[in-house]
Structure prediction request, 247 residues.
Amino acid sequence: MLKLLCVTAHPDDEAGCFGGILAKYSEAGVECSVLCLTGGERAANRNGIKPDEELKALRRKEFADSCHHLGVKHCEVFDYADGALDRENFHEVTGKLVHSIRSLRPHVIASFGAEGYVTAHPDHGMAGLFTSAAFQWAARKTRYAGQLEEGLKPWQAEKLYYVTTEFSLPERPAVSLAPVTARVDVAPYIARKIEAFAKHASQLPLLPIFENAQRQAGDHELFHLVATSEVTPMEMETDLFAGIRAL
Prediction:
C-alpha cells in the first residue's frame, strides 16, 4: 500500500494546506497520516475559551474530526508549544519525527518550506525544517540509533515535498516561495476540503478568509519537490506518487 505523511504545525493546517491531496489520495487507497506539532492553544480565535489547555483539548478534537472527514488513517498531535517551535530542541523534535517516519514508513512526505508558506508563520517554517532533517535522518543507522535497538528499522521515504502557491497575502510578511514542480488536480475534493476546515469550529471566523484563498488557489494544490531517494531529473508532475510503486 502506498503511504502519504503530512507534517503540519497547527490544527487546521491539514485541511487548509493539504486537504485536497489527503482527500484525493485516501479515496484512491493511499494510507494517509498527519502529524501536527502543536495543539494550537495560542490561536487568536478562541470560541469564548480562555484557558489554553481547554482550547488545546477542543482543537485536538476538531483536528481528529477534520482528519476523519479527509480519510486520514493516522493522526497525532505532538503537543509542542504553539507559537514557539523555533525555540524547541531541534534534535528532540526531529527525533520524534524520525521515530514516526520509521514506524509509519511513508513513501511520500509533505510539509512546509522554511519561509512558512503563504502566511509566513514561523511555526510553519520550523515544521518544514524539522521534517526536512527527519526525511534524511530516518534512513541513517547512525541517527537516533537507540530507536533501532527498540526494534525500529531505518526508512527512506522516496519523495519530500513542500506545499507552495502562486499568490501572496498582502497583509502578511513577504515570503520567497519555492517554485511549483507539481500541480495536483483536487477539483473534486475542494468541497470536502472546505468541510474539513469547517470542522474546526473554534476557528470559524477564519472560514471566509480560507474560502477566498481557496478561490485564488483554484482547482490545484501546488508543491515543490525537495528531495528524492534516487537522483532524478526535475519534471513537472501531476501526481505526488509518480514513479513510485508500493513494495
Notes: Residues 164 and 177 are 6 Å apart (CA to CA).
